[in-house]
Amino acid sequence: MTTPYHPPRKYSVRIDGHRTSVSLEPIFWDLLRSAAARRGVAVNTLVATIDAERIRSETPPGLAGAIRVWLASHEMVSRHEMSGGIAPAALSNGVAEEA
Length: 99
Fold this sequence. Notes:
By secondary structure, the protein is of the alpha+beta class.
């Protein structure tokens, strides 16, 4: 991929045996596949986990938004941990401060 700026692509995923489609930009699909591979699970399994977390939230976002947020927060925390750095508190506990 020469640039990260591409329109979303729709893929079909299975969550608890039900098919649904999710539209994400290619960079997020790549990150999702990598995150699933690092965890040793299928992409569908990771999406189902993210979906379950999303549904339990006080104000559930759409699935595509939840996947993007999950990737941004979990991947940033993982990269900080792997590099020996300290993850920002807002990312490690899932709470962001508002101005």
